């Protein structure tokens, strides 16, 4: 008998990463996609729900029957105003975690960001490791640090496996000097997400970038603890041009 595919909810599926995951993971998992307001025409054929993550009642039903949640929904602007950060990234993240708990979901993959540690980058204090004290460079970074702390609480208090991924610069290909060290390719992104879904770890915070030779962020623990094996390197990409 074939093993049942895990059912995975992806919040914020209309974004660049969400759309890529819908394409790359639909054979591996039974996906349910969450959209804020508008359902893209090319994704209408997939199971989906619509709701504002800051409105608990509108999104709670989406979590029923799910094995895992990949939480991408957020205002991703580095300089987003406080009102938007509070609504989408803090209240919304709490609602997602709590709705997952209430529905009996046992795995949450939280899309964090390099901006949680952005002041190390500003001061060029490299390399940066995931275990260092947080130094957010913006309210956006602060909101993602909140999500990581909330994940720690839900893992310890409720026994939910929570994996936080500090995502670098998600692009089809690196474009400049900065992307040489912070690029996350689409296929490496899909891999690190499914590795996070499959791990038995109770909690972890990991950098999610490709195997860029000039990277400033350490991905040793991502490789050792999640089994991540990045296939792309920005240097090879530039060399092929």
Write the layout of secondary structure elements.
Layout (H helix, E strand, L loop, with lengths): L6 E5 L4 H10 L4 E6 L12 E3 L5 H4 L8 E4 L10 H21 L4 E7 L4 H5 L16 H20 L2 E7 L1 E2 L6 H6 E2 L1 H13 L4 E6 L11 H7 L7 H6 L2
Parallel strand pairs: 1-2, 1-4, 2-3, 4-5, 5-6, 6-9, 7-8
Helix pairs in contact: 1-7, 3-5
Structure report:
There is one protein chain. The protein has 241 residues and is of the alpha/beta class. It has a single domain, classed as NAD(P)-binding Rossmann-like Domain (Rossmann fold), CATH 3.40.50.720. It is 38% helix and 17% strand. It is built from nine helices and nine strands. The strands form two sheets. Strands 3-2-1-4-5-6-9 form a seven-stranded parallel sheet, with helices on both faces. A two-stranded parallel ribbon has the order 7-8.
CATH architecture: 3-Layer(aba) Sandwich
Shape: globular
Quaternary class: single chain
CATH topology: Rossmann fold
User: Measured on Cα atoms, how large is the radius of gyration?
Assistant: 17 Å
Q: List the uncertain runs.
A: none
CATH class: Alpha Beta
CATH superfamily: NAD(P)-binding Rossmann-like Domain
**Share of helix, binned:** 25-40%
Strand content: 15-25%
The residue-averaged pLDDT reads 96
Count of the separate structural domains: 1
N-to-C span: 47 Å
- Decide which structural class fits the backbone: alpha/beta
């Amino acid at each position: 008998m074939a093993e049942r595919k895990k059912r995975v909810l992806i919040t914020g599926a209309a974004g660049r990463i969400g759309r890529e995951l819908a394409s790359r993971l639909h054979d591996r998992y039974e996906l349910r996609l969450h959209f804020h307001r508008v359902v893209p025409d090319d994704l209408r054929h997939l199971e989906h729900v619509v709701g504002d993550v800051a409105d608990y009642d509108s999104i709670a039903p989406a979590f029923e029957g799910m094995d895992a949640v990949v939480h991408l929904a957020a205002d991703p602007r580095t300089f987003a105003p406080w009102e938007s950060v509070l609504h989408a990234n803090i209240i919304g993240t709490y609602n997602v975690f709590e709705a997952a708990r209430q529905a009996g979901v046992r795995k949450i993959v939280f899309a964090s960001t390099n901006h949680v540690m952005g002041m190390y980058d500003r001061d060029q204090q490299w390399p940066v490791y995931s275990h260092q004290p947080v130094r957010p460079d913006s309210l956006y970074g602060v909101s993602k640090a909140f999500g990581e702390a909330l994940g720690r609480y839900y893992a310890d208090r409720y026994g939910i496996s929570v994996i936080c991924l500090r995502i670098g610069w998600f692009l089809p290909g690196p474009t400049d000097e900065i992307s040489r060290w912070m690029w996350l390719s689409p296929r490496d992104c899909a891999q690190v997400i499914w590795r996070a879904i499959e791990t038995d770890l109770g909690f972890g915070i990991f950098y999610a970038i490709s195997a860029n030779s000039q990277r400033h962020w350490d991905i040793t623990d991502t490789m050792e603890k999640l089994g991540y094996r990045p296939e792309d390197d920005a240097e090879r990409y530039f060399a092929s041009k």
